[in-house]
C-alpha cells in the first residue's frame, strides 16, 4: 500500500509539471483557438534565460523574476509578429505556423546555447518529508506549491480583475467583446504573454529534474497535450486536474503494468489523447462545442 | 546586354505562342526525366546517392501531400508510416530473407493496412486533434521499436545487405540503387496522378475545400478521409522501403519526431497540393540542411523554422506555386 | 446626439452591400430601418459601429466616426446590440452587464446604472449569478439591451430585437426601448423585420433595398403609404 501511495506521490509531482505546461496551452487555445505546438519550446527557451541569469551570478529567485518578465514580453511579441498575420486563417495554416515556430525556437536555443546539456539549479532544498512509509521530497512539494500558486493567481486574475473579465469576454465572444470596447488584439497578445509566462514556470520546474537542453520539453509537451485534452482545451482548471491525472496514470502504468514498463510510458498520453477524443472530445471540464449561428 | 535579354524574351514568347501551356509541362517533365536518367552516369557516387535520397523523400512527400495538400488533413507523424515501411522491409530482408523486389509491395501493403486502421478513428478527429494524435504516434514509435528488440534489433537497429546490380547490367551499386528508386518514384507519381484525377481524387478536393458542401453533394466523408490516410501511408511506406534498400540500415533514431516534422516542413516549403511540390520539397530537405550545417549545427532548424512561417505568410502554395506563377506570367505577356 | 450619415459605402471583401446611404437621425429620436432580407440593414448597423470597412461620412454630433474600430466607437458612446444578441454565454449575467460598462471609469455611476437596468428588466436581477447562456431567448435579448445601456450610450443600435421571441415578449421589449429613449434621450437606430412594431415607437423610418434607401419619412407617413406596406412591410393597412 505504501508502495502504491509512493507511486501516486511521484505521479502527482510529474503531473504538476504537465499541468503547468497544459495551463499555458489552454490559455492560448481559449483566446485564439490555436493549439500552440511551440509552447514547450518557448518554455525551454525561457528556462535558458533563467540559466543564463544564474550563470551570470544572479540569485535564483531574481533570475526567475527576470525570466518571467522577459517571457511575458516575448509571448506578446510573438503574438504580434508571428501569429497576428495569420489570425483567422484555416487550422492547417495555424498548426503549420506553430510547428515552424517550434522548429525555429528549438534550433535558435541550440545556436545560442549549443546542444550540450547543462545543469540547472534546483530551487528547492534536498530531502523529504516521510510519513507512514511514504516520502515526499521537498522538490515535489515545491513543484505542487508553485503550480497551485500559479493556478490561484490566474484564478484571481480572471475572476476578480477588469482585465481578466475582458479576457474571458474575448475568449467567449470576440466580436461582442469588440463591441463593448475591449481592444481584442491587445487582449490576445496578453493571452500569449501570460501563456509564455506560465510555460516558463513549467520549464524552470522541469529543468532541475531533467537536464537543460534544447530538446528538454519535447517529451513533456506530449504529456501536456494529453493533460489539456483530458481536462478540456478550454478549461484552465481542467488542464491542472488533467495534468495530475496524466502524471499519476503514467507513473502507475509504468510501475504496475509489465507490458508498459518504464520504456513504453510515453504510450500512456497517446492512449489518453485517443481515448478522450473518441469518447468525450470536449474533455472532463470542457464545454461541448456548439456551432455558433 | 539588354538587347540579348529582349531577344531571349521574344524567342520565349514565340515559343510560348506556338506551344500550348499543357504541352510545355510535358516537355519540362520529359526533359527532367531524361536528365534524371543521364545523371547517374555523370556524377560521383556520393552525388548519385544524394539524388537517390531526394527521390526517396519525394515519394514520402508525395504521400504526405495526398493527406495534407489534397485532403486537407494534418499529420505531424508521417515519419511513423515511413518507419513502418522501412522496418517492414528490413525485417523481411533480415529475418525472413525474402528477395528484395518482394519487399516493396509487401511494405507498401503493410503501411496501407496500418494507414487504413489508423484512418478509421482519425476521421472522427477535427484537424487540430488529428495533429495531436499523429504527433503522439510519432513520439511513441521510437520506444516501441526499441522495446521489441527480438524483431527490430532494438536501439542497435538492423544492418542489411543492399540490393546488388545484376551482373549483365554492368552498373555500380549506387547507379543500380538510383535507377531502381527512379523507376519506383516515377511509378509512384503516375499512380498518385491517376488517383487524384479519379472520382476519389475529386472527392478529396471537395472535402478539403468545404467539408459540409462535399457531404451535401453526397461525398461519403469518412470513407474518403480514411482512404486518403491509407494511400498516404502507402506512399510513405514505399518511401521507407526504398530508404532501407538505399541505406542498408534502420534504427529507431533514424525515425524520430524530427523526421515527421522535417517531412511536413519540406512539403510546406515545396508546395502543398501540387505534383512538383514534393520534388522541390525533397530537394530542399536533402540539400538545404547540409549547406546550412556548415554555418552552425542549429542553422538548418533556424532556416526551416523561419521558412515554414514565411511560406505560410507570403506563398501558401510554396516553391511550386511560386514557380507556377512565374511560368504563367511569361505567356500571358502576349 | 445627432447622427449624420452621408454617402456611406460598405461591404465584405469585394462584395459591396451598401451603395451610398444617406440619413440623419435627430437628437433623442428613434429611427427605424426597414426592408426585405438581404437589403443591407444589418450591414448598415455594423458600419455604424465600426464592424465593417466603410467609405463615406458618419458623424455623431460633429465627431467623425467612419473608419474607426469598434472599441474606439464604444468609447465614443456607440452601443450595438448585434444580431444574435452577442451574449457572453459562459459568463454570469452580472459579468455580462458589467462588460457593457467596460470602457467606463466612473465606478459609482456604473453601480447606479446597474440598478437602473434592473429596474428596466427586473427578471435580470433574479439571475445575476447565473450563466448567461442558461437564459431564455427573451431574457438574453433583455440582457443584451441591458448590456448596451450600461455604456450610457449616446447612440444605441438595435439589430432585430424581436428575432426568435414570442410576440408578447417582443412587445414588452419595445415598450422598454421606448421608455429608455424617453428617459435618457438616447438616440436609437433600430433594424426590424416587424415593421408594425418598429413604426410604433419610431419618429422616422427609412426603407432600405439592395443597399440603397428607397424611401424615407416620418413613421406615420411610411405607415400610411400603402404601396410600401405591400412591397416592404409585408402587410396591408
Automatic annotation (TrEMBL), chain A:
<dbReference type="GO" id="GO:0006865">
    <property type="term" value="P:amino acid transport"/>
</dbReference>
<dbReference type="InterPro" id="IPR001851">
    <property type="entry name" value="ABC_transp_permease"/>
</dbReference>
<dbReference type="GO" id="GO:0022857">
    <property type="term" value="F:transmembrane transporter activity"/>
</dbReference>
<dbReference type="Pfam" id="PF02653">
    <property type="entry name" value="BPD_transp_2"/>
</dbReference>
<dbReference type="InterPro" id="IPR052157">
    <property type="entry name" value="BCAA_transport_permease"/>
</dbReference>
<keyword id="KW-0813">Transport</keyword>
<keyword id="KW-0812">Transmembrane</keyword>
<keyword id="KW-1003">Cell membrane</keyword>
<comment type="similarity">
    <text>Belongs to the binding-protein-dependent transport system permease family. LivHM subfamily.</text>
</comment>
<keyword id="KW-0472">Membrane</keyword>
<dbReference type="GO" id="GO:0005886">
    <property type="term" value="C:plasma membrane"/>
</dbReference>
<keyword id="KW-0029">Amino-acid transport</keyword>
<protein>
    <submittedName>
        <fullName>Branched-chain amino acid ABC transporter permease</fullName>
    </submittedName>
</protein>
<keyword id="KW-1133">Transmembrane helix</keyword>
TrEMBL record, chain C:
<keyword id="KW-0067">ATP-binding</keyword>
<protein>
    <submittedName>
        <fullName>ATP-binding cassette domain-containing protein</fullName>
    </submittedName>
</protein>
<dbReference type="InterPro" id="IPR027417">
    <property type="entry name" value="P-loop_NTPase"/>
</dbReference>
<dbReference type="InterPro" id="IPR003439">
    <property type="entry name" value="ABC_transporter-like_ATP-bd"/>
</dbReference>
<dbReference type="GO" id="GO:0016887">
    <property type="term" value="F:ATP hydrolysis activity"/>
</dbReference>
<dbReference type="GO" id="GO:0005524">
    <property type="term" value="F:ATP binding"/>
</dbReference>
<keyword id="KW-0029">Amino-acid transport</keyword>
<comment type="similarity">
    <text>Belongs to the ABC transporter superfamily.</text>
</comment>
<keyword id="KW-0813">Transport</keyword>
<dbReference type="InterPro" id="IPR017871">
    <property type="entry name" value="ABC_transporter-like_CS"/>
</dbReference>
<dbReference type="Pfam" id="PF00005">
    <property type="entry name" value="ABC_tran"/>
</dbReference>
<dbReference type="GO" id="GO:0015658">
    <property type="term" value="F:branched-chain amino acid transmembrane transporter activity"/>
</dbReference>
<dbReference type="InterPro" id="IPR052156">
    <property type="entry name" value="BCAA_Transport_ATP-bd_LivF"/>
</dbReference>
<dbReference type="GO" id="GO:0015807">
    <property type="term" value="P:L-amino acid transport"/>
</dbReference>
<keyword id="KW-0547">Nucleotide-binding</keyword>
<dbReference type="InterPro" id="IPR003593">
    <property type="entry name" value="AAA+_ATPase"/>
</dbReference>
Amino acid at each position: 500500500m505504501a508502495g502504491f501511495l509512493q507511486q501516486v506521490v511521484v505521479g502527482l509531482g510529474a503531473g504538476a509539471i504537465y499541468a503547468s505546461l497544459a495551463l499555458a496551452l489552454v490559455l492560448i487555445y481559449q483566446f485564439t483557438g490555436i493549439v500552440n505546438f511551440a509552447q514547450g519550446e518557448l518554455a525551454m527557451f525561457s528556462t535558458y534565460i533563467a540559466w543564463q541569469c544564474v550563470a551570470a551570478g544572479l540569485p535564483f529567485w531574481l533570475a526567475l523574476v527576470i525570466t518571467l518578465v522577459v517571457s511575458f514580453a516575448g509571448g506578446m511579441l510573438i503574438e504580434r509578429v508571428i501569429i497576428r498575420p495569420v489570425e483567422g486563417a484555416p487550422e492547417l495554416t495555424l498548426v503549420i505556423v506553430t510547428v515552424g515556430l517550434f522548429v525555429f525556437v528549438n534550433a535558435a536555443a541550440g545556436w545560442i546555447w549549443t546542444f550540450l546539456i547543462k545543469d540547472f539549479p534546483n530551487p528547492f532544498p534536498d530531502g523529504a518529508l516521510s510519513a507512514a512509509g511514504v516520502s515526499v521530497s521537498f522538490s515535489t512539494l515545491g513543484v505542487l506549491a508553485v503550480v497551485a500558486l500559479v493556478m490561484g493567481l490566474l484564478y484571481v486574475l480572471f475572476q476578480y480583475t477588469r482585465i481578466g473579465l475582458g479576457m474571458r469576454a474575448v475568449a467567449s465572444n470576440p466580436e461582442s467583446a469588440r463591441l463593448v470596447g475591449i481592444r481584442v488584439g491587445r487582449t490576445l497578445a496578453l493571452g500569449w504573454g501570460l501563456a509564455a509566462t506560465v510555460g516558463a514556470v513549467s520549464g524552470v520546474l522541469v529543468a532541475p529534474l531533467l537536464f537543460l537542453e534544447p530538446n528538454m520539453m519535447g517529451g513533456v509537451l506530449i504529456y501536456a497535450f494529453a493533460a489539456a485534452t483530458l481536462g478540456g482545451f478550454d478549461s484552465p482548471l481542467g488542464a491542472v486536474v488533467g495534468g495530475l491525472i496524466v502524471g499519476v496514470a503514467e507513473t502507475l502504468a509504468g510501475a504496475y503494468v509489465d507490458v508498459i514498463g518504464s520504456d513504453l510510458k510515453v504510450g500512456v498520453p497517446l492512449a489518453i489523447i485517443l481515448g478522450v477524443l473518441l469518447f468525450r472530445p470536449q474533455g472532463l471540464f470542457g464545454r461541448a462545442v456548439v456551432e455558433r449561428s | 546586354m539588354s538587347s540579348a535579354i529582349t531577344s531571349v524574351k521574344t524567342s520565349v514568347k514565340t515559343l510560348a505562342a506556338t506551344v500550348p501551356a499543357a504541352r510545355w509541362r510535358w516537355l519540362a517533365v520529359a526533359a527532367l526525366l531524361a536528365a534524371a536518367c543521364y545523371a547517374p552516369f555523370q556524377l560521383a557516387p556520393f552525388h548519385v546517392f544524394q539524388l537517390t535520397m531526394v527521390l526517396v523523400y519525394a515519394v514520402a512527400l508525395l504521400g504526405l501531400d495526398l493527406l495534407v495538400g489534397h485532403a486537407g488533413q494534418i499529420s505531424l507523424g508521417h515519419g511513423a508510416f515511413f518507419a513502418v515501411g522501412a522496418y517492414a522491409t528490413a525485417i523481411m530482408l533480415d529475418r525472413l530473407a525474402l528477395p528484395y523486389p518482394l519487399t516493396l509491395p509487401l511494405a507498401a501493403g503493410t503501411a496501407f493496412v496500418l494507414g487504413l486502421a489508423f484512418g478509421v478513428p482519425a476521421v472522427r478527429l477535427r484537424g487540430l486533434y488529428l495533429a495531436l494524435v499523429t504527433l503522439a504516434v510519432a513520439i511513441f514509435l521510437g520506444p516501441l521499436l526499441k522495446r521489441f528488440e527480438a524483431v527490430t534489433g532494438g536501439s542497435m537497429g538492423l544492418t542489411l545487405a543492399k540490393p546488388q546490380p545484376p551482373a549483365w547490367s554492368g552498373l555500380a551499386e549506387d547507379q543500380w540503387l538510383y535507377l531502381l528508386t527512379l523507376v519506383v518514384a516515377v511509378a509512384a507519381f503516375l499512380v498518385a496522378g491517376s488517383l487524384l484525377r479519379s472520382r476519389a481524387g475529386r472527392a478529396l478536393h471537395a472535402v478539403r475545400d468545404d467539408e459540409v458542401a462535399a457531404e451535401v453533394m453526397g461525398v461519403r466523408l469518412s470513407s474518403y478521409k480514411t482512404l486518403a490516410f491509407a494511400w498516404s501511408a502507402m506512399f510513405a511506406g514505399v518511401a521507407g522501403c526504398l530508404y532501407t534498400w538505399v541505406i542498408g540500415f534502420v534504427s529507431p533514431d533514424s525515425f524520430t519526431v524530427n523526421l515527421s516534422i522535417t517531412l511536413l516542413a519540406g512539403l510546406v516549403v515545396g508546395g502543398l497540393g501540387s505534383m512538383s511540390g514534393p520534388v522541390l520539397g525533397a530537394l530542399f530537405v536533402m540539400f538545404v540542411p547540409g549547406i546550412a550545417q556548415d554555418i552552425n549545427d542549429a542553422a538548418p532548424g533556424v532556416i526551416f523554422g523561419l521558412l515554414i512561417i514565411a511560406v505560410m505568410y507570403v506563398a501558401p502554395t510554396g516553391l511550386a506555386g511560386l514557380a507556377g506563377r512565374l511560368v504563367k506570367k511569361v505567356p500571358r505577356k502576349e | 446626439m445627432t447622427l449624420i450619415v452621408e454617402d456611406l459605402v460598405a461591404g465584405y471583401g469585394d462584395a459591396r452591400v451598401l451603395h451610398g446611404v444617406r440619413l440623419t437621425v435627430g437628437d433623442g429620436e428613434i429611427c427605424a430601418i426597414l426592408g426585405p432580407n438581404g437589403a443591407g440593414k444589418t450591414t448598415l448597423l455594423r458600419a455604424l459601429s465600426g464592424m465593417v470597412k466603410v467609405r463615406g461620412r458618419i458623424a455623431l454630433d460633429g465627431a467623425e466616426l467612419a473608419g474607426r474600430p469598434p472599441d474606439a466607437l464604444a468609447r465614443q458612446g456607440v452601443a450595438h446590440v448585434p444580431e444574435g444578441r452577442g451574449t457572453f454565454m459562459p459568463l454570469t449575467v452580472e459579468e455580462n452587464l458589467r462588460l457593457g460598462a467596460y470602457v467606463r471609469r466612473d465606478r459609482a455611476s456604473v453601480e447606479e446604472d446597474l440598478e437602473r437596468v434592473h429596474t428596466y428588466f427586473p427578471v435580470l436581477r433574479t439571475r445575476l449569478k447565473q450563466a448567461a447562456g442558461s437564459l431564455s431567448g427573451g431574457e438574453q435579448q433583455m440582457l443584451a439591451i441591458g448590456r448596451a445601456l450600461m455604456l450610457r450610450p449616446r447612440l444605441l443600435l438595435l439589430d432585430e430585437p424581436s428575432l426568435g421571441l414570442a410576440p408578447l415578449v417582443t412587445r414588452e421589449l419595445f415598450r422598454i426601448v421606448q421608455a429608455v429613449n424617453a428617459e435618457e434621450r438616447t438616440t436609437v437606430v433600430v433594424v426590424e423585420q416587424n415593421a408594425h412594431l418598429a413604426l410604433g415607437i419610431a419618429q422616422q423610418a427609412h426603407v432600405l433595398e439592395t443597399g440603397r434607401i428607397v424611401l424615407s419619412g416620418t413613421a406615420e407617413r411610411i405607415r400610411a403609404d400603402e404601396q410600401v406596406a405591400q412591397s416592404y412591410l409585408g402587410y396591408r393597412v
